[in-house]
Amino acid sequence: MAEKNGCFNGLKCRECGKKFPAEVLYVCDDCWGPLEVDYDYDKIAARLTKETILSRKPNMWRYKELLPIEGDVTVGQHVGYTPLVKSDRLGKALGVKTVYVKNDTVNYPTLSFKDRVVSVALSRAKEFGFDTVGCASTGNLANSVAANAAAAGLRAFVVIPSNLELGKIIGSLIYGINVVGVEGTYDNVNRLCSEIAGHYNWGMVNVNLRPYYAEGSKTMGHEIAEQLDWQLPDHVVCPMAGGSLICKIEKAFNEFIKLGFVDKHDFHIHGGQAEGCAPIVEMVKENRDWVKPIREPKTIVKSLAIGDPADGPFARQTMIGTGGWGENPTDEETVWGIRTLAETTGIFAETAGGVTVAAAKRLIDAGRIKADESVVLCITGNGLKTKEAVEGEFDAIDSIQPKLAAFDELLKKIEGKEPATVS
Ligand SMILES: *Cc1c(COP(=O)(O)O)cnc(C)c1O
Ligand SMILES: [Zn+2]
Question: What is the DSSP letter of 418?
Answer without folding.
Answer: P
